[in-house]
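Quick entry between incubations.
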Amino acid sequence: MMQVEPWLVLSFAATIFFIGLTGVFIRRNILVLLMCIELMLNAVNLTFVVFSRQLDSLAGQMSVFFIMTVAAAEAAVGLGLVIALFRTLRTVDTDQIQLLKE
Amino acid sequence: MISLIPLFPLIGFLINGTWYALGQSRPGARKASAGLTGGIATLAIFASFLVSLQLFLQLHGMPEDGRVIEQMMFSWMKVGDFNLQMGFRLDSLNTLFTLVITGVGTLIHLYSVGYMGHDETPGKFFSYLNLFCFAMLMLVLGSSLPILFLGWEGVGLCSYLLIGYWYADTEKASAGKKAFIANRVGDLGFLLGMFLIYTTFGTLDFAQLKEVVMAGGHGALPHGVALGTITTICVLLFVGCTGKSAQIPLFVWLPDAMAGPTPVSALIHAATMVTSGIYMVTRLNFLYSLSPDALGLVAGIGAATALFAATIALVQTDIKKVLAYSTVSQLGYMFLGCGVGAYTAGVFHVITHAFFKALLFLGAGSVIHGMHEEQNILKMGGLRSRMPRTFLVFAIGWLAICGIPPFSGFFSKDEILWTAFSSPHGSTVLWAVGAVTAVMTAFYMTRLFSLTFLGQPRFQEAHGHDDHHGHGHGHGHGIHVHESPWIMVAPLGVLAVLSAAGGFMGVPHLSWLEHWLEPVVGAHHGIAEGVSPSLEWVLMGVSVVGAVVGITFALKLYSNLKNAEKLAQSGSGLHKLLVNKWYVDELYEAIFVKPIHALSKGLWKGFDVAVIDRFVVGFGRISQATGQAVRTIQTGSIQVYAFVLGLGLVATVGYLIYGLAR
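Done. Structure below.
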């Protein structure tokens, strides 16, 4: 069976994480922001799995399950908020939604 | 037992004061009657009089050199070595003062019940009056200077409150302020004198002070104390007296104080408060006697004030103003007496003056009441037949102040004049000033008396005979003059008897008073060398003749007002000067008030607005500018915040890694 080098997987995960982070910083659409957050979460999941395998410990895999559950819940709540926000403000652009400033 | 004397007026004040503050002053509350509030106040002060009388009799029964009753109540202040006892000490000097204050005070309270009958807020008036009596009694009973000072300030406060009693009138309110400020100036001197006494002698208690001062023997300076220090102390304390007892240069407040209700003028500004300066000088006579310079100053100021105020009184037309200047003049007499070392004569004049001046003021009040608030004597006249009882008692007061024997003023005034001439500290000049003043006194009092009671009425009289004592403003034009009710006339009667007979306690050579005061003021100083004792009778004759001349001249002059006007015309410059009171008020306005105004205005514009305000506004501007600058980084965009957060995170982690790696 072919062995995938751990550093390769970790670099891949890091790349995805930073793609997500950059997306959170620069994108203005809330839906895209939510997707970017999902990207970051799943990149973290991937590193957990790698280390779980490397260290022969199931704790990492346990964390992955928790994160996936929380991420699912977060996506549900987040999408609900986006819909509510869109209904009140008629936009999903974060530049238009700066109520904190005032 | 002594503490009961000031306690009763205090209780009266608390009852009337609380009742007024909580009940009567509320909007829509029913007006309290003068009878009830005044009754409470009168009872309080009368109870105090009874206690004073009882204590006086107790003192009288004691052996001559042990006539002191002391009551120490509690330690008021304790700082290091300084232990101030709250206590009262009654001796032969202040027992006389308590009798006068509570006795004359009772009569004036009683009179006020009638006089203030139509007042809107009698509760307030009587509570103030009681508070005044309380403070005055503290002043004379206090065993040490700080307690005296407590009363000293208390009477000043009450005087202010009562002068400005009708505060809705701006002029009256500012008269109150003037009195208060003039008194404060004097109080500064008093305080400094008190401090100097403490640093010099280490005690403020009168008995201990006397012991320390007299330690070197009679007439010798206490060990280690320079004469200059004692003179400074005496002069500083005397500055306090010039404020409270209305002497040059601080006398200006007393004539204005006549803005208060007439009973107040009688009680505070004639009979009691203004004599507190004489009380203090007499109380500290052992100090004053050591310093010839200080005594000379007291006598000089006293004589100058007596003459100065008498000249102003010659031409005033307000009945109360004449009496006010006369009071200033008589106070000058008392200081003249004290200044030549004749403290007994000073105290004697305090007592007789309290009787006849209270009588004159209350008589004037009765006239003002009867004339419906008319105070100008040029608009009176002929009241003799319309107010016969007031006329009679006023005549007695008039003869007493003029110094006609055997009325009380004759004895006390003559004693002062004789001692001014004969005492080792006295001189012919002092006597001459006093004698001229006496003639002037006779003149202006006769002028007042004649213009008020004699001759024909110079006002339009209302016709019709309704005999009730209501105010006649509703009768159309003209004044319906009425005699005052019995509650006002009765105290006048008592005071008239006292004014007539009060002098017999100090008949020359048989003086009960002199003997009585000996433990406090020491034996009589005797007469200077080269003065023949028989001169006393000559001088007495001179002053009586002077008084009679003054009276006759005034009677003749003012029997026809046109003659008087002609005389005023002939000396119009002098007349104008006197009418304007020597322009003293204007002078003070120019020397003190205006510069202080200018200084205050300069400080306001130059310092407050230019410096302090700029600082305050500047701080505001700085905060604003900082805020403006910093708000640009608050974009409201969560992403920017998150980005900054991320940067911060990276920086922190980087620093930690860098730090750990090192």
